[in-house]
From TrEMBL:
Highest taxon of source: Eukaryota
Keyword Transmembrane helix among UniProt keywords: no
GO MF annotation list: glutathione transferase activity
GO biological process: glutathione metabolic process
Organism the protein comes from: Amblyomma americanum (Lone star tick)
UniProt-recorded name of the protein: Putative glutathione s-transferase
Pfam family name, one: GST_C
Keyword annotations: Transferase
Domain GST C-terminal: 10-139
Amino acid sequence: APTSELNPKNVQKRAYMDQILSVVATHIQPNFSAFSIPSFRTNKKPSAESIKKFEDGVLKAFDVVVGDKKFAVGDNLTLADIRLISLLACIVPLADIFDRSKYPKVASYYDRVSGQLPYFEELIRPHIDERAKFWKTLQ
């Protein structure tokens, strides 16, 4: 999508977007999976140690990546934001594992970006609701 607004024309911004996508692929996603998959397999809530590791490995990484910017790469929505919001939709709505007061930048970013995507609620809400229901069933 070289001509898409989601893919910055500016080479520096595109490189920064690629860097963010790389951080997601090599750091955030693996740590996210290491946290969530055991609960799906065992039907058990994550331990306090697992939650701490998740906060240190995933939530703090999100905090650094989104920072104080309007969007991940600056003032415009990019593919990086779409990727980030897809993961955040699995976390932010779950009050048991995401404390909005502890990660206000991430919470604000989530609200801002999801609000910019007119199809977000329609496409993602059923998955958010299913995940929330699942987390409530964990022992």
